[in-house]
Design brief:
The protein has about 100 residues and is of the alpha+beta class. It is built from one helix and seven strands, in the order βββββαββ. The chain has a domain of about 60 residues. The strands form three sheets. A three-stranded antiparallel sheet has the order 3-7-6, with helices on one face. It is elongated, with a radius of gyration of 18 Å.
Length: about 100
């Protein structure tokens, strides 16, 4: 199976050598079961809305940091914890050994 990489005349499969040399960006949304507000509480500080993270919300943030320590080929481009869901934009870059 080939995938168009949006570059004219260039196709590759994800398993081919070199297929991951170019950055790959994905947007992931995690939703709590039943849309329960387990990650935080929506508040307003008088000028803007904020999410006060729960313990589970902070665990989520800490695990993101752990993921970055374990996988240096991953970069977090953006993330947002909401009361009942979490958005994260990840960039995957392959780092070949010297």
């Amino acid at each position: 199976m080939t995938t168009n990489t949006n570059i004219p005349n260039e196709t590759s499969t994800w398993q081919e050598p070199g297929a991951w040399h170019k950055p790959c960006i994905v947007h992931v949304t995690m939703v709590a079961k039943g849309r329960e507000p387990i990650f935080g509480k929506l508040t307003h500080n008088g000028t803007r809305a904020e999410v006060e993270k729960t313990v589970i919300g902070w665990v989520l943030i800490n695990q993101q940091q752990r993921m970055l320590e374990l996988c240096p080929e991953i970069k977090i481009l953006a993330d947002k914890v909401m009361p009942d869901h979490h958005h994260i934009v990840l960039q995957f870059c392959r780092f070949d050994a010297p």
